[in-house]
Amino acid sequence: MYFYANEPKQRIIDQVAQVINAMSPVHGYDISVAEHKPKRTNAQNDFYWVNNEDVAKFLNESGVKMAFGLPFKSENIHEINKKYLGVPSTRKQDIHSFSEYMTKVFAFWIEKTGGMWQPKESPYGYLEKVGLVERGIR
User: Fold this and answer.
1) Which of 62, 63, 76, 127 has the most CB atoms in a 10 Å sphere around its CB?
2) Would residue 77 count as lying in a domain?
3) What are the backbone dihedrals phi and psi of residue 127, each rounded to the nearest 5 degrees, phi first?
4) Count of H helices and E strands in the chain?
5) Does residue 19 lie in a domain region?
6) CA 90 to CA 48: how far, in whole Å?
7) What is the structure's pLDDT at 48?
8) Which of 42, 36, 35, 32 is nearest to 98 (CA)?
9) 89: in domain
């Protein structure tokens, strides 16, 4: 369940109690409470895919090909990122974790291309531009 930060605490307690009262568990309840962290945004996901496309374009223009001479596509870059960076999905990452992941993606491809590929924009620069973080706050 998600509640806004300004929601009166008693209203939250009452709603949780309604859910508990509607249950008839045999072995008890599992209840977890944690601070809500905003998940990565669709704009961040778009940023990721634009950069995957940029890496693929760079590799193709540099004459690097996949097996059988096939050109790289953004989906291939995504699969490489997943395999070598150990992150199967970014869907549940919060904004900060996703930015850290993007920094790792950038470092990976800068290293693999000997510094020849460079991202056009930093993850936090992008977040500042789209208003997801305040300028200078990390």
Assistant:
1) 127
2) yes
3) -60, -40
4) 5, 0
5) no
6) 10
7) 93
8) 42
9) yes
Split at pLDDT 50, 70, 90, the class of 134 is low
Q: DSSP letters along 103-122, please?
A: HHHHHHHHHHTTT----SS-
pLDDT at 105: 96
The answer to whether the beta carbons of residues 117 and 85 sit under 8 Å apart is no
Residue 13 lies in a domain: no
Report CA torsion sign: 77, 79, 81, 87. positive
At 11-46, the pLDDT tens digits run 989 998 998 899 888 989 888 888 877 788 888 898
Mention every residue, 6+ apart, whose C-beta is less than 8 A from residue 4: none
- Taking CA atoms, 13 is separated from 16, 21, 32, in Å, by 5, 12, 13
Instruction: Find where tokens 């568990």 sit.
Output: 25
Token duo for residue 129: 């531009």
Q: Which residues contact 51 (CB under 8 A, 6 or more apart)?
A: 102, 105, 106, 119
Residue range(s) defining the domain that contains residue 90: 42-129
Provide the number of structural domains found in the chain: 1
